[in-house]
Amino acid sequence: MMLDSSAGALGASVEAGLLGLELTQVQWYLLLGTAVAVIGMVRMLLTRDLVARLIALNVTGIGSLMIILALAARSAESADAAGSGPGIDPVLSALVITGLVITVAFTGLGAVLIRRIEGFQASGRRDDAESGGTAQDPEAEQ
Predict the structure, then answer these.
(1) 26: Cβ–Cβ under 8 A, 6 or more apart, which residues?
(2) What's the predicted TM-score (pTM) here?
(3) pLDDT tens across 5-43, in order?
(4) Residue 30 CB: number of other CB atoms within 10 A?
(5) CATH for 48
(6) Does residue 136 sit within a domain?
(7) Looking at the 3D structure of the chain, how many domains does it have?
(8) Which is the most buried residue in 20, 63, 95, 113, by most CB within 10 A?
(9) What does each C-alpha distance from 142 to 74, 127, 135, 137 come to in angstroms?
(10) How far apart are CA 125 and CA 131, in angstroms?
(11) Domain membership flag for residue 64
């Protein structure tokens, strides 16, 4: 992979030697964000472990935030109003920062819920073991 130093920061082309494709930096990040989001989604759908699902959900979210940042750079390739050159769209950047804050909050909430679910399941197994493996119905004794 080789960056073309003669182009601007946002318009730099990335060459893939094996396929012969030339991708701009924005296209490269769009492709990478899509791949990360798809990998996270596949992992989330194929695993049964709750912690692994939470991590896969975070990976999917990071992939979608990468896509939004790449789109922000793509929409800002034209010069801004001050004429200082290309930049990142501030609205989409603020959206990504908000998404990161929400991701951290839901990760914490998910971790607490996973801990409670696994604690509840463990106490249920412990109660079954103490009762001899059969659930006792108090109304059945009468």
Answers:
(1) 10, 70, 73, 74, 77
(2) 0.68
(3) 444 444 455 555 556 778 888 889 999 999 999 999 999
(4) 19
(5) 1.10.287.3510
(6) no
(7) 1
(8) 63
(9) 73, 22, 16, 10
(10) 10
(11) yes
